[in-house]
Each structure stands twice: as C-alpha cells, then as structure tokens.
C-alpha cells in the first residue's frame, strides 16, 4: 500500500503536536501516555502511530509484557494497575463512542483515579491521538517514517 499523499499542512501538524505535548505534560506520566496512544492506535489500525509510539514507549520504560498484552488489557490480570486500567477503559470509550457517549461508569472510574486536571489532559491526549490516527490512516501513511 502506498501513501495517497504525504502532504500535511505545517500549521495543522504544529497545532496537533502542541496539543499532544501539552496533554502529555499535564498528564505527567510518559509511560501511561504511550499506553493510551498505543491502545487508541490499535483500535484505529494506525500502523504509523503504532510504530512511532511503540518505539517511544520502550524508551519511556513501558515493559515488553505490557506492550505484548495491551490489546487484551482487561484479561491481563495484574500486568496493568488500576490507574492504567481506568485510563485504558476511558481511551477505548472515547475512541469508539459506539453509543454516542462515554458511559458514566467508565468516566467515574477514571475520575476516581485522576485529578480533574489529569483527567482533562488524559481526555485531550485521547482526542489528539484519535485525530492523528485519522490523519495518518486516511492518507495511508505506512510505518517506518518516524525518526526519534
């Protein structure tokens, strides 16, 4: 598969990158941020973003076991702690939006484990990675173009 176009407006890319950086910084947990971005990218089938964020996750100290079991995090026992599980549940709910809303129990679970500010940054991070996924998938950008 070849890219449809590699053109992306520089101002758009800079704005999305700034939102991503602000959300990661406000969340304050680089490893968790990468787990969230990888999980959304798995759901959205974004090979470019998976390639990039798996590389960053390894550099951020995310364990290979977590990366191996991320797609099945709900069944992975104690591989993920409660905070990570709440963030992943929220990530899936915001990414899929099957019923048009994030279920109250998913939001409340996350709200119990994150401050209001952290929750705002987590939600922003999920929103921006979904945006990046859509930008990359719609243009069919293949993996391998990320240079750390």
From TrEMBL:
It comes from Streptomyces griseicoloratus. Residues 11-92 form the Carboxymuconolactone decarboxylase-like domain. One of its GO terms (molecular function) is peroxiredoxin activity. Pfam families: CMD (PF02627). NCBIfam families: ahpD_dom. It comes from the Bacteria. PANTHER family: 4-CARBOXYMUCONOLACTONE DECARBOXYLASE FAMILY PROTEIN (AFU_ORTHOLOGUE AFUA_6G11590), CYTOPLASMIC PROTEIN. InterPro entries: AhpD-like, AhpD_core, CMD-like. This is Carboxymuconolactone decarboxylase family protein.
């Amino acid at each position: 598969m070849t890219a449809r176009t590699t053109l992306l407006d520089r101002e758009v890319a800079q704005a999305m990158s700034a939102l991503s950086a602000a959300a990661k910084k406000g969340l304050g947990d680089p490893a968790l941020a990468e787990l969230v971005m990888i999980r959304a990218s798995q759901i959205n089938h974004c090979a470019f973003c998976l390639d990039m964020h798996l590389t960053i996750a390894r550099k951020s100290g995310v364990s290979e076991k977590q990366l191996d079991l991320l797609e099945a995090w709900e069944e992975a026992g104690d591989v993920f702690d409660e905070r990570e599980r709440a963030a992943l549940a929220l990530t899936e709910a915001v990414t899929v939006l099957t019923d048009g809303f994030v279920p109250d129990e998913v939001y409340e679970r996350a709200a119990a484990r994150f401050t209001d500010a952290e929750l705002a940054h987590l939600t922003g991070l999920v929103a921006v990675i979904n945006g990046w996924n859509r930008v990359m998938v719609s243009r069919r950008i293949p993996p391998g173009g990320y240079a750390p």
